[in-house]
Write a structure and sequence with these properties.
By secondary structure, this protein is an alpha+beta fold. Helices cover 43% and strands 18% of the residues. It has a single domain, classed as Alpha-Beta Complex (Sufe protein. Chain: A), CATH 3.90.1010.20. It contains four helices and four strands.
């Protein structure tokens, strides 16, 4: 009986400790091959306010299921639009996965105003290609 109580208390304590951990999203870009950077003042943007919109196309990133490439529009120090130019769509399953994942990735990019977005479960290859292409576009823009 005593072992059961000790085991139960230990298990509950371990689960509570794990639940108390917070995910570190700052290293997301470095996990897919690009260095995570930050600049003084908390802003990673070098686009000045009032600047004309600028559109930059990222590198086409080859994934296991096909290339992923994005185009980013930047204006007033923000990412204002993301278009996915290429994505895996060779079969019905690819279309299903990417029809779900890509809108989530685009919205997360607009919300975060950076490439530091979470991967979409079930679309790991597309998510990785998307983030790498997005980061290459932002690098080209000087972000």
């Amino acid at each position: 009986m005593r072992r059961i109580v000790i085991t139960t208390v230990s298990t509950v304590a371990g689960v509570l400790a794990l639940l108390g951990l917070k995910p570190d999203t700052a290293d997301l870009t470095s996990s897919v091959g690009a260095p995570a950077t930050s600049s003084p003042g908390g802003s990673s943007s070098t686009v000045t306010s009032g600047a004309a919109p600028r559109t930059v196309t990222g590198d086409a990133i080859n994934t296991r299921f096909g290339p992923v490439q994005v185009q980013v529009t930047l204006a007033d120090g923000r990412i204002t639009d993301v278009q996915v130019l290429q994505y895996p769509n060779s079969d019905r399953r690819d279309a299903e996965i990417n029809g779900y994942a890509l809108p989530l990735l685009v919205q997360a990019t607009l919300d975060a105003n950076s490439a530091a977005v979470d991967m979409v479960s079930g679309a790991t290859y597309t998510s990785t290609g998307y983030v790498r292409s997005l980061q290459s576009a932002l690098d080209q823009a000087g972000w």
